Amino acid sequence: MKKWQTKEELTDLLCSIVQYQSITGSTAEIAIAEYLYHILSQKEYFQKNASSLNLHPLEDGRRLLTALVKGKQKKKDTVILLSHFDVVGVEDYGSLRNLAFHPKELTKELFQSKDQLPENVRKDLEAGDWLFGRGTMDMKAGLTLQLAMLERAIEGEFDGNVLLLSVPDEEVNSSGMLTALPVLNHLKETEEIEYIACLNSEPMFSKYPGDPAHYVYTGSIGKVLPGFYCYGKESHVGEPFAGINPNLMISFLSQQMELNEAFIEQIEDEITPPPVSLMHRDLKAEYSVQTPQAAIVMYNVLYLKQSFEELNRKLLVSANQAVKQIEAYVKKKAEHFATVAKDFTMPASKVSVYMYEELYKEAVNRYGQEEINRRQNLLGSQREQGDRDFSTLLVQELAAMCNDLAPMIVLFYSPPFYPAVSSHHDPYIQDVMEDIKKFTKENYSIDLVNSEFFTGLSDLSFIGPVTSNSKIKQLTENMPLQHNGFVFPEEMMEQLKMPILNIGPLGKDPHQWTERLELNYSFNSLPTIMSRAIQQLLANSPKRQ
């Protein structure tokens, strides 16, 4: 019996899911997985096929969910429905924080004070077909729709199999999806199924304020997180020219990297934004009149089809430009100080730039591989830090072992890393998308726009065809965390690689306190559109030709 098909039913289901305050890393992120398992276990299909519904543990105790519905014809072809159930925090809601996970109540409360809201938000409230709340858009509406598709699969609507995969931690490290890869591989073998495509349902993202387009996607943008470890030369504050302050070093790096137009990439109408810093601080633990020894800055760098060599070259160019500015600045200030200070000796201010791989090899040459392994294993056994801080600590340890190379800047990479992926030119996906666009135009008078890259980052990055010809190893060799408690699963990704697409609901303002979902398209039109997409994916699979 179907329970999640009408607009009202889907809205109620969404609200029940949103009420689980599944902020990434919270206990509610565990509870929501159990809730999803519970509501699916009430279905007669899963009562008869209990082994097809499972919760799978992550190393930290969180769990991901899989629910497999096999078609009556017992065919191998399987479409994966991918979603995540974690959300970002709610600090931005201010006095409305207690209502952030209660969409109907929050929407009513906002309506009471609509005159104080931004004009575009007020207009949506007055239109009446919008639901506000954390996760309504990103991406519990997509998950809600996929549960509706699973219900249709149970009723025999699809000529093939449908596998729901819903994961935690998409908003931070994607450890849910990374854990899901071997799970998918295991299911493929034990259930004797073939994955023909993965359909994600992340919400569509506007390309500019007021953008009226309805987007569907055939790929997902890539992201790297480069870090610059600045190892200075400490000094007493009374003798500032006796060293180089790493805070000064990262200030010049910021001038080179922040919003650097050299990193903007354009493919047809797709444009990546320039880099922005996500971490920027010195590493001095306590106050004293000694200058800091080291500082760290990390940048969000998005890409579409650039090679890792090209990205790395641009990063090194920025670092070397910063070095020139640092050296010139210190020289100029020292020259001025020499005019007023007697017996002042001009200091050396040479700054070197290294890749992590270069620093690692230098440390091995000096101390031996066994000693480097011992030190890194010791740090790992005592680890309390997150991925970014622990990556920094591993670099810091090597830099301290080679401190005579200071002052220096060390370029390295930290998780999360999202490969850019695309099925935009895959004839199979092109045919499906053309059918969906035609179907939507004829039935709903809506012109869907097929955009190659979903720009909000998604877990499709770990399962789709990569856009760059670069080997991922070229990046992971400069990732300190690789083989130190983390392994980027390149081989597993290659084994599972499949065509991808993203068809999701309409909303606005993800990760903002005005996050909201449009209900008419999302819960009236989209269920039929998604069902059509699944049918076409199964009917047009190259494996059936």
Description of the molecule:
The chain is an alpha/beta fold. It has helices at residues 7-18, 27-41, 44-48, 103-112, 119-127, 140-154, 175-190, 246-257, 308-338, 356-367, 369-381, 387-401, 427-444, 473-476, 490-496, 519-539, and strands spanning 53-57, 63-69, 77-84, 130-132, 161-167, 194-200, 214-217, 219-220, 222-224, 226-231, 266-267, 270-271, 276-282, 294-303, 352-355, 408-413, 421-422, 448-451, 500-502, 507-508, 516-518. The strands form six sheets. A six-stranded mixed sheet has the order 1-2-5-3-6-19, sandwiched between helices. Strands 9, 10, 13, 14, 15 and 16 form a six-stranded mixed sheet that branches. It is globular. It starts with 6 loop residues before the first helix and ends in a 6-residue tail after the last helix. 44% of the residues are buried.
Q: How do the strands and helices of this protein lay out in sequence?
A:
Blueprint: H1 7-18, H2 27-41, H3 44-48, E1 53-57, E2 63-69, E3 77-84, H4 103-112, H5 119-127, E4 130-132, H6 140-154, E5 161-167, H7 175-190, E6 194-200, E7 214-217, E8 219-220, E9 222-224, E10 226-231, H8 246-257, E11 266-267, E12 270-271, E13 276-282, E14 294-303, H9 308-338, E15 352-355, H10 356-367, H11 369-381, H12 387-401, E16 408-413, E17 421-422, H13 427-444, E18 448-451, H14 473-476, H15 490-496, E19 500-502, E20 507-508, E21 516-518, H16 519-539
Parallel strand pairs: 3-5, 3-6, 6-19, 7-18, 15-16
Antiparallel strand pairs: 1-2, 2-5, 4-21, 8-17, 9-14, 10-14, 10-16, 11-12, 13-14, 20-21
Helix pairs in contact: 1-6, 1-16, 6-16, 7-15, 8-9, 10-11, 10-12, 11-12, 13-16
